[in-house]
Amino acid sequence: MTIAIFKAQRDVLIRPLQVICGIVEKRNTLPVLSNVLISTGSDEVRFRSTDLELELMAREAIQTGQSATELLVNARKLLEVVRAMPDAELTLSTSEKHLFVRAQGSRIQLQLANPDDYPLAARNGDDSEPVSVKAGELKRLLHSIHFAMGDNDLRYFLNGALLITGPRLTAVAIDGHRLATASIPLVGDAKHSEIIVPRKAVLELIRLLPDDESSVCVETSMRYAKFEFANVSFACKLIEGRYPDYTRVIPTSFEAEFSVDRLQLLACLQRAVILTNERFRSIRCVADDGKLTVFASNADNEESVEAIQIDYLGANVELSFNIRYLLDVASTLKTDRLNFRLSPGNLSALVSAQDMGDFKYVVMALRG
């Protein structure tokens, strides 16, 4: 005997399943984490996934006409099944051990798991402090700094982004060789707080956030952060630890500066990276009156030399960089020109953008 749960158009079901599958690993040490928990009410269906560090819930307004029901089924299989169905209304029903997906003569049967085995939802607690930001601004903020986050760094607190509230929302990323920071306005007042959001959570937010003026409610506590927007609720465990004082890394005095067309610089770097050493990726940059010359070479005695125009007046300056660090900023920012200011002794460069006044990117120069 089967019991009908609800009916919905295929595309209505694809949307929430695509959202929650973003954090479902293809291979899990705990098989239960490969599943999606589907909860029904009279006028809403909720889809929840978790990897124990991140949690996603997507809601869809679907009339079920049934009392509250919970079922647990493999998330990726269900998404693939729904995608493969005809573009029509789908009927989902269950027996004691199976979920059935039907449409226009097709019927696919999936194994159900015990919903009691699924981890409980994250709870923020009474110490949470909600703030509000615009979705598109938060998406661009995180995108502008994400490339500078640590990745499997032994200093675990660098494997994420620092978010600081009050009076603006500031994001900071450091990997030990470079720093990126930017800020956006908050909607209303907010108390000062600092949290470290894991790298995977930052990347997932960039994927999920809409690029529009809709509101995002950000709720934080000692252990969790929760982001509510549209029909999505996203929660993550925070990284515990003390983030470095990033302001000490940003140089305040300079001995040379220039501005360069971003797309010209990007094209130049994309050509130069072809000939750099696979391990070190080092390039030499020489700035003088009106031009920046980029030199790249490798152990096979191959070489690339290219000069591009810059707005620069001053003494000649020569220093080396990891080309990947320059490529990251040139390819990520959507701006016409990049400004470079060189610290005394050519220890680092501070990169900013004329139309992104709050963005700062510090990249350390290579020695020797």
Automatic annotation (TrEMBL):
It comes from the Bacteria. Residues 133-245 form the DNA polymerase III beta sliding clamp central domain. Residues 248-366 form the DNA polymerase III beta sliding clamp C-terminal domain. Pfam families: DNA_pol3_beta, DNA_pol3_beta_2, DNA_pol3_beta_3. GO terms for molecular function: DNA-directed DNA polymerase activity. Residues 6-120 form the DNA polymerase III beta sliding clamp N-terminal domain. Keywords: Cytoplasm, DNA replication, DNA-binding, DNA-directed DNA polymerase, Nucleotidyltransferase, Transferase. It is found in: Cytoplasm. Confers DNA tethering and processivity to DNA polymerases and other proteins. Acts as a clamp, forming a ring around DNA (a reaction catalyzed by the clamp-loading complex) which diffuses in an ATP-independent manner freely and bidirectionally along dsDNA. Initially characterized for its ability to contact the catalytic subunit of DNA polymerase III (Pol III), a complex, multichain enzyme responsible for most of the replicative synthesis in bacteria; Pol III exhibits 3'-5' exonuclease proofreading activity. Belongs to the beta sliding clamp family. Forms a ring-shaped head-to-tail homodimer around DNA. This is Beta sliding clamp.
